[in-house]
Structures are given as C-alpha cells and as structure tokens.
Design goal:
Low-confidence stretches of chain B: none
Number of strands of chain A: 11
Structural class of chain A: mainly beta
Helix content of chain A: under 10%
Largest sheet of chain A: 6 strands, mixed
Number of strands of chain B: 11
Radius of gyration of chain A: 13 Å
Largest interface: A-B, 26 and 25 residues
Strand content of chain B: over 45%
Largest sheet of chain B: 7 strands, mixed
Mean pLDDT of chain B: 89
Mean pLDDT of chain A: 94
Helix content of chain B: under 10%
Order of helices and strands of chain B: EEEEEEEEEEE
Distance between the termini of chain A: 41 Å
Oligomer: heterodimer
Number of helices of chain B: 0
Shape of chain B: globular
C-alpha cells in the first residue's frame, strides 16, 4: 500500500525566503506526482504535475523535482510571499489510486 | 485549464436526512470522476471511482449503500449521503479526468472546490 509522507507538517518563514517542501513515497511504481495548494476551507489548486519519466517541472516561482528511484519529491518556492500561505499537498498516482500526503501548512510572515 | 464545479458549496442538514452533492465538468468530458473525503486537518481519502455509465468502485471501508454515486453523463456525477449522521460531517471533494480507468492513469485529475457537509 502506497504511503505518502510530507515534511515538515508546518512551516513559518519571513517573506522573501526561499523554501523547500518535502514529499516521500514508499512505492516507486507511480505514473505521476502532483503538488497542490489548498487554502482553508477551499478545494485544491493544482500547481505542478510531474510525469514519472520527468525529473522536474517549473512554473513561475515554483519548481518541483522528482526522484522516483528514491521515492522523493521536493517543491521549491522562491522568494516567498504572504500570498503563498496555504497548505501544500503532494499526491502520487499509482496503478490503483491517487494517494495524498497529509500536507505542509505554510505561513509566510510579512 | 479544465474546470470542475461542485454544488452546493456548503450544506447543513439534520441527522437522518439525505444530501445530494453534484460534481460537474464544465469544459471537458469526464470519463472518470472520483470522490474524496477530507476530515479537519487531515488529507484527502479516496472514497470511490466512477466511470460514466457503469457502477462506481468503492474503496475499502466505504459503505456503498450509504454513499450512493451516480455518473449518468460525461459531465455530471452525484454523491448522495443517505441517512446522514454527525460522523458524516466532512469536506467532500470530487475530481474528474478525461480518460477512463483507475486514478493511476497518466491523465491529470481536475478538482472541484469541495462541499462542506455539516450534519446536526
């Protein structure tokens, strides 16, 4: 059974800092990995999707990497802003299901 | 990008009543739709997968008679929580994919905004 772990569970940083969120998974037989953002009481906003054959994806200030063999992904956020404050979820797509991590709650202090 | 809507966004009901939640793909045909549940400060848990025109596949531990799923068209899936009880209070989120099959397919899933259900 796939297990997805996200570290840290919570993170508070001052505005402008670069930061890294970590995601690890136990079963490397995945089709893709997605990073989502979730604001309190809201649905999911897809940030980046990395196919299993890819090593990274970039969108604006976000960069996500994937090392399938070691079961790890990182989400790099450059020059963080207060508007980046949210919970960030990673999810891996295996043969059977999309499995979510428990998320990292990010607070960017102005 | 692909848009998925959910209705209602929030519902409060009395214990014992049934509640229907709609999930619509607005600008694409969703061959497969997924229903998730999210308890406070927890992650999303897949409840069931539905392919248009066929019966839904439920995850282990999810009661099919309590959570009725209908995927009658390529743009609409409904989740009915029957005889709701306070322990069913949760955030329900649907997602849709333009390809058929399990959630493990390469196609991206597009998520709805969620429905907050509160059962008194």
């Amino acid at each position: 059974k796939q297990e997805v772990t996200q570290i840290p569970a919570a993170l508070s940083v001052p505005e402008g800092e670069n930061l890294v969120l970590n995601c690890s998974f136990t079963d490397s037989a995945i089709y893709n990995l997605q990073w989502f953002r979730q604001d309190p009481g809201k649905g999911l906003t897809s940030l980046l999707l990395i196919q299993s054959s890819q090593r990274e994806q970039t969108s604006g200030r976000l960069n996500a990497s994937l090392d399938k063999s070691s079961g790890r992904s990182t989400l790099y956020i450059a020059a963080s802003q207060p508007g980046d404050s949210a919970t960030y979820l990673c999810a891996v797509a295996g043969r059977r299901a999309l499995t979510f991590g428990s998320g990292t709650r990010l607070q960017v202090q102005p | 990008g692909a848009v998925v809507s959910q209705h209602p966004s929030r519902v409060i009901c009395k214990s014992g009543t049934s509640v229907k939640i709609e999930c619509r793909s607005l600008d694409f045909q969703a061959t497969t739709m997924f229903w998730y549940r999210q308890f406070p400060k927890q992650s999303l848990m897949l409840m069931a997968t539905s392919n248009e025109g066929s019966k839904a596949t439920y995850e282990q531990g999810v009661e099919k008679d309590k959570f009725l799923i209908n995927h009658a068209s390529l743009t609409l899936s409904t989740l009915t929580v029957t005889s709701a009880h306070p322990e069913d209070s949760s955030f329900y989120i649907c997602s849709a994919s333009a390809t058929s099959g399990s959630p493990g397919m390469k196609a991206e899933q597009f998520f709805g905004p969620g429905t907050r259900l509160t059962v008194l």
